[in-house]
Design goal:
Shape: globular
Order of helices and strands: HHHHHHHHHHHH
Distance between the termini: 64 Å
Oligomer: single chain
Length: 222
């Protein structure tokens, strides 16, 4: 990813480089691009862009990171608006079986975590694509979604980009930067696993509760 971004910077210059990174972050959620190429629109892109900024003086980490944060917020806002405006059919028309499985998983994730699902989903590839429109479909209050969107998008976008930058410019903090990046990635994986476990548990509980003892509690005769 860093090699590809270096070639892009050499070919188009800083301004188009910024626009390309911001555009990918925006399109990842607003245009569903992240469903098909999550690594080019997510954590790997941000970390690599931060690394590159740390080794090229013509780039500014503040311009890049703040722009990433704004692009992330706007992308989620568009997803939320489309969900609110178009309803469940908007997601029903998206992709094949594996995409629809991701939609159902995100719906359960939203049911379990509510406001926090919007924040946490930023660190989960499938979550950051599906949760915003699901929040819109579920009629989440606009300002409630907006606050969660800002917290999640800025912490994700700015944090990972700045970590990549410091990993490049300061050898003394480079090991710490890589550790923090690893923790962020592991946290996103853990959040996804936790959502899956809670979903499976919530699906089993109604089935268990619906089982009633037969007769006087003894096993029925065969």
């Amino acid at each position: 990813m860093t090699h590809d971004l270096t070639d892009l910077l050499a070919d188009v210059g800083p301004i188009v480089f910024y626009l390309a990174v911001w555009g990918l972050v925006f399109a990842g959620t607003a245009l569903f691009v992240g469903v098909f190429i999550p690594f080019i629109t997510g954590d790997s892109l941000l970390f690599a862009a931060g690394l590159l900024t740390g080794t090229h003086s013509e780039l500014s980490i503040w311009v890049l990171a703040i722009g990433v944060g704004i692009a992330a917020v706007l992308g989620d806002q568009v997803g939320f608006w489309l969900g609110r405006r178009l309803g469940r059919p908007y997601l029903a028309r998206r992709g094949g079986r594996w995409v629809q499985a991701g939609v159902r998983r995100a719906e359960r994730f939203y049911e379990l975590f509510g406001w926090w699902s919007v924040v946490i989903s930023r660190y989960i590839p499938w979550g950051r694509v599906f949760i915003p429109p699901i929040a819109g479909i579920s009629a989440m209050k606009y300002w409630r979604f907006f606050t969660a969107n800002v917290v999640g998008a800025l912490s994700w976008g700015v944090l990972i980009t700045v970590i990549g930058y410091f990993a490049a410019v300061n050898p003394s903090v480079r090991p710490v930067a890589y550790v923090v990046a690893g923790v962020v990635i592991l946290a996103s994986i853990a959040a996804g696993i936790r959502a899956y476990v809670l979903d499976k548990r919530s699906r089993r509980e109604p089935a268990v509760d619906s089982v009633e003892p037969a007769g006087d509690g003894h096993r029925p005769a065969l």
